[in-house]
Design a protein that fits this description.
By secondary structure, the protein is of the alpha/beta class. Helices cover 37% and strands 13% of the residues. Helix 3 crosses helix 8. The chain is globular.
């Protein structure tokens, strides 16, 4: 491990603070950030999750895909988009002409938030709160600054709001190439539905077609 990749000792936030910023390394690339994120205590979600699920993919990717948070399988395996929604996403990316191996995949929130009636019962996904999303956002912005993609795909409302602000609405803003603030680390955002919404849809064929059409906008922007 090089000195450049080794994160300095962090000044941790108080236990009741909602802010991941104190846990970010002051220098180093994605490997340093991934190691530091493993010990993040920036919000209470770490207490029940199995592990931090940091982004994964090409460190110089021209496209970054951002979801809401890891799900059950992602929490167990420690990698983003490896569950049913992730498999559908990878299929759609390929059909849209986007090489998933040349992309970088991540989530706004890095820990799995869930409810569980009793130990051993199925863990049910719960949407992160605005406070939890805001606490974890520094990790996402750091990833975007390090990768510097040309296009960021926002999957669903949480990702869209994290990247475009609280006024974002999937139904209104999806499928358009939206300029991104330069300080956020990307050039343009294309918003669409989360692949989990396709799996929940009454008409999966129509929902998938909409997801695919939006991803093709991102693919076209890559040239």
């Amino acid at each position: 491990m090089s000195r450049a990749d080794a994160p300095p000792a962090a000044t941790h936030a108080p236990p009741d603070a909602y802010d991941a910023s104190p846990y970010l390394p002051q220098r180093g690339g994605l490997p340093a950030h991934r190691r530091a994120a493993a010990d993040c205590r920036g919000c209470p979600l770490f207490e029940h999750a199995t592990q931090t699920v940091f982004g994964k993919g090409d460190p110089s990717a021209r496209i970054v895909v951002v979801g809401e948070q890891p799900g059950d399988q992602e929490d167990r395996q420690g990698e983003p988009f490896v569950g049913p929604a992730g498999r559908l996403l990878r299929k759609a990316l390929g059909e849209a002409g986007i090489d998933v191996d040349a992309a970088y995949l991540t989530n706004v929130v890095k820990h799995f938030k869930f409810s569980q009636e009793t130990p051993g019962k199925r863990r049910i996904h719960k949407a992160p709160s605005l406070r939890e999303m805001s606490a974890c956002r520094p990790w996402l912005i750091a990833e975007l600054h390090l990768v510097r993609p040309d296009v960021v795909v926002a999957l669903g409302a949480t990702a869209g709001k994290a990247l475009l602000g609280g006024s974002f609405r999937v139904t209104k803003d999806r499928g358009a190439l939206i300029p991104m603030a330069d300080e956020d680390g990307g050039r343009h955002v294309v918003a669409t539905i989360h692949p989990s919404a396709v799996l929940r849809a009454d008409d999966r064929k129509a929902a998938y077609a909409g997801l695919l059409a939006d991803l093709k906008v991102a693919a076209k922007a890559l040239g």
